[in-house]
Amino acid sequence: MQPIKEMMRVVDNVRDGDFHQKVHVLSNDELGDLGDGMNEMTEGLIERDQMRQSLYLAKEVQQALLPRAVPNIKGLDIASTSVYCDETGGDYYDFFISDKPDASRISVVIGDVSGHGISSALLMTTARAFLRQRSAQPGKISAVVSDVNRLLCHDVADSGGFMTLFYLDIDRQNRKLHWVRAGHDPAVFYDPRAATIEELRGSGMAMGIDADHAYEQYSKEDLAPGQIVLLGTDGIWEAQNPRGHMFGKDTIYRIIRQYSDTDAKGLLTACLYALDKFRDGVKPEDDVTLVVIKITP
Description:
- By secondary structure, the chain is α+β, with helices and mostly antiparallel strands.
- It has helices at 2-15, 30-65, 118-135, 141-155, 234-237, 249-258, 264-279, and strands at 76-83, 91-97, 105-113, 163-171, 176-182, 187-191, 196-200, 218-221, 228-232, 288-295.
- Helices cover 38% and strands 23% of the residues.
- The termini are far apart.
């Protein structure tokens, strides 16, 4: 019975989180085979624990790279969130603001990297660095996205990785929106004056595919208080309920109309609440990122 006691000792220690225990059984019978199997199991648990710790660290680093707070800018009410479905995610968003005291422009970017896990997290981190560096330099946002795409193509060559992006620039002084769409879902624009909803569309392939692709800039004039811009990733409208039905963009449109009188945070909360209720316990298969911008007086 001594070998069995030895195995129970190791099992108790492993249960308490000590994966470095070994079974010392010298027999060549079935108990010996069982002891060898337990030792292989604990080695596998060590590797899994190390991987779990690595993923946790990667998640901490990646979350730290997302905005810690929304910018406080006169004339704009902003709310945002990003929820990953795995330890690490491929969704990304950021705000770029000039450090000049009289700056009247703010850029908002949202992106979705292909895949999940460490590789997508690394690509997201690389894209963030490129975007921040290039956005701090002069030039139209179409040039910014084209330059970053060229860098990404060189970085992801032969890996198959790519990233969709929506780059929005808000010019408060001239009451204009400018945007570039790089394969990402269009932003949603709501105008309360006529209760109309439109998508901010435009051509442009995902980044990281064609280094020579020239992106186009699109514009919209006559910004007015009460108007809403919503940027999101497909983890929202492609979310499914237990019956396999998708949440859909029409649901988002209804929520925008219903909560258009609330602030940006209230609208964002309403979207997330409706999404959670719709899922009805179904585990999300994709990250969810949402940015709500409301034009204020």
